[in-house]
Amino acid sequence: MATGDEDLAREAALGDRAAFAVLVDRHYEAIFRLAWRLLGSRADAEDVAQDVCVALPAKLRRFEARARFTTWLHRVTLNAVRDHLRRRATRQRAAEGWGEVELMRSAEAAETRAALGWLATAMSALPEDQRETAALVLGEELSHAEAGAVLGISAGTVSWRMSAIRTALRAMAAAEEEGI
Amino acid sequence: MSDELDRLQNALRDAPPAPAPQARAQALAAAMAAFDAEAEKNPTGTQAADARLRSKKTRPHWAARLFGGLQMPSLTLKSTLLGGASLAVLALGVVIVQDPDLLDPQPKPITVPTSQPAELTDTRPRTDMAEERTADPVVGQIVTRSEDASTQSPPSDSDAENATAPADPRPAETLRDAPLQEAPVPAAPAPMASELAPSDAPMRQQLSGLERVQPMMRQPGDTRRATRELGLLAPTPPGIVAPDAAPQDAPIIAPPDRDRFETKPDNPVKLVAEEPVSTFSIDVDTASYAWMRRSLNQGQMPDPDAVRIEELVNYFSYAYPAPETRETPFETSVSVMPSPWNADRKLLHIGIQGYELSDDARPDANLVFLIDVSGSMQAADKLPLLVNAFRLLLSELRPTDEVAIVTYAGGAGVALEPTPAAEADRILAVLERLQAGGGTRGEAGLHEAYALAEAMMAEGEITRVLLATDGDFNLGLSSDEALTALIEEKRETGVFLSVLGFGEGNYNDALMQRLAQNGNGIAAYIDSLMEARKVLVEGVTGALFPIAKDVKIQIEFNPATIAEYRLIGYETRALNREDFNDDSVDAGEIGAGHSVTAIYEITPVDSPARATDPLRYAQPDSAPQRAPESAPQTAPAAADTSDEYAFLKLRYKLPDAEESVLITRPVTPADETASAEARFAAAVAGFGQLLKGGRYLGDWSYADARALARANLGNDPFGHRAEFLRLLALAETLDR
Question: Residue B21: its pLDDT value, please?
Answer without folding.
Answer: 87
